[in-house]
Amino acid sequence: MRTFSAITSRRPFTLLGILLAVLVIVAFVLVALNASATNSSPQQSVVVAARDIEPRVPITSADLKTSTISVAATFPKVYFTDATSVTGMVPLVAISSGQPITSNDVAKPNQALGGQSEYLAIPRGYVALTIPTSEQQGVADYIHPGDYIAVIATVSTAGKVASMTVFTQLHVLKVGTQVAAGGGTATSLTVVVTQCQAEVITWFLTYASLKYTLESYHDYAPGDQAPDPKCPTVGDAKGVNLAVIKAAFPGLF
Fold first, then answer.
1. Which terminus of the chain is more solvent-facing, meaning fewer CB atoms within 10 Å of its CB: N or C?
2. Same-domain pairing of 134 and 175
3. Residues 103 and 156 reside in one and the same domain
4. Which residues contact 57 (CB under 8 A, 6 or more apart)?
5. How confident is the model at residue 156 (pLDDT cuts 50, 70, 90)?
């Protein structure tokens, strides 16, 4: 026959066993409830990244695919269901492959992006240069982004005045507009050039005058531009002076 003291000595172990059993049951119930909540979350087909997407690079159709995910009601996000509505938008942050794309991750082109904007479409080996324009200098404001222009330089030296087309097929990326009471007048053009061309244009802006012509859209040559073999990188620009300009454009002097 067990003594009272023996029973008393075993009581802590009995209580500990009961407590552990209760904890196991509670944990099982919580897991079951969580699984049930997960399974009951509504399923939605959304647009996700087909590959890693870098910020500021406009999204293409190849960057996107659709996938079905569970959308938790307690974590509201605005997802996209159609890939075409995301194509062309600009990522504000890096988006990993397989990650659903939300309205907080992207913005429309030319829209303020919290201090940043999309990258300009500058081919490898080229730079963007902003040049001044006006109604008479720039074809009465008919030049728009995406157009191609030619540049005419006029030089007056030693009593001789001469004009010559110095560049053609310069791709216009942006048009700066100063808004006035009667409307807008273009004040600048941002064009794609090599760094060597940028130095030459800068020289002409300082010591001569420039005028632009708008090329026919039938003559446009869009597409990827290969680096110019005469000036393939920014580092290949070595500077210009009058002697360099005379050698390059002898008809002006």
1. N
2. yes
3. no
4. 90, 91, 118, 119
5. very high
Return the bridge partners of 44, or none. Answer: 69
Is residue 80 packed enough to be buried (19+ CB in 10 Å), middle (13-18) or exposed (0-12)? buried
With a CB cutoff of 8 Å and minimum separation 6, the contacts of 41 are 70, 71, 72, 73
62-73: per-residue pLDDT in tens?
999 999 988 765
**pLDDT exceeding 90 applies to what percent of the chain?**
56
| Interatomic CA distance for residues 122 and 176, integer angstroms | 17
- Indicate whether 92 and 197 sit together in one domain: no
Do 46 and 79 meet the contact criterion of CB atoms below 8 Å apart? yes
Residue 179's domain comprises 127-252
Q: Alpha-carbon distance 199 to 166, whole Å? A: 13
Return the amino acid letter for 33. Answer: L
Cα(96)–Cα(48) distance, integer angstroms: 9
Q: Based on the fold, state whether residues 138 and 88 are members of the same structural domain.
A: no
- Contacts for 28 with CB less than 8 Å, ≥ 6 apart: none
Give me 63's structure tokens: 């960057």
Nearest by Cα to 131 from 208, 65, 198, 217: 198
How far apart (Å, rounded) are the C-alpha atoms in residues 61 and 51?
11
* Residues 41/70, Cβ–Cβ less than 8 Å: yes
Q: Is pLDDT above 90 for 43?
A: no
Q: Are residues 86 and 162 in the same domain?
A: no
- What is the distance between the alpha carbons of residues 212 and 62, in angstroms, rounded to a whole number? 37
Does the residue 100 lie in any domain?
A: yes
What's the pTM value of the predicted model, to 2 decimals? Answer: 0.66
